[in-house]
Amino acid sequence: MRFDVISLFPEQFRILTQEGVVARALGRGIATLRLWNPRDFTHDPHRTVDDRPYGGGPGMVMKAPPLHDAIRAARVAAEAAGCRSRVAYLSPQGRPLSQADIGRIADADGWILLAGRYEGVDERLLEADVDEEWSIGDYVLSGGELPAMVVMDAVIRLLPGALGHAGSALADSHMDGLLDCPHYTRPETLDDGRRVPGVLLSGDHAAIARWRKRQALERTWQRRPDLLAGRDLSKDEQAVLDALEAGAAPRDSAETSGATVRQLTQPPDGVERPESSDQHRSQD
Asked: Where is the composition biased (Polar residues) (predicted)?
């Protein structure tokens, strides 16, 4: 997997090459990273990369020519390395990324990631050179560098050999459409008396698997019911959700027996849903 990143602040990506999963993957050649600064593709003494917006308004807009030349150079370098890369712009107006999207992105040869700044990028550049626009959430950041790093981290950890244990990524939240189950480690009992659930100490792997699946379903039902709305539920999953609905929000027998996924994905009476981190989307 090859990443070419176009950024006015390439030094921000240094941390990726120094610590953690991404750094190890880069060091092992599982992924490669090359940084491109649009200022290197300017042709004026001041190396100008932005200008005032036509029509007035606050802020500055990134100019198309330096970005176009930087993207072209990145394409040429990628092709020389045998990689057919697509171009993605990290944008508040982009498609909100899901784990399924990350899996699709990881299947590609490579990506040229454009990190925006200021009020954004000249729309003509996006029309001419960008294949996709991505958002990591409905919130505002100072630039696209952090979102680009988020995408790289999410993608690289799916690549074979990137993680110490191959099954780690498969057990993550969202990999099977559900949030992850709770996890515990030593000590068995904390000072405040909280204990590890007994089933995890039983050695019964089938029972542990059932417990983890139920916990994942329950956590998803409580925190991200939207993830269940489009899910093709198995009989066992439907039974778990029926039990949760019946226990959390008592109904008369007619309502309970006719419970639907739509009902199950509504907050139980008197239960306040924790706010999901995925409810905040954006970057610049």
From this structure: 255-266
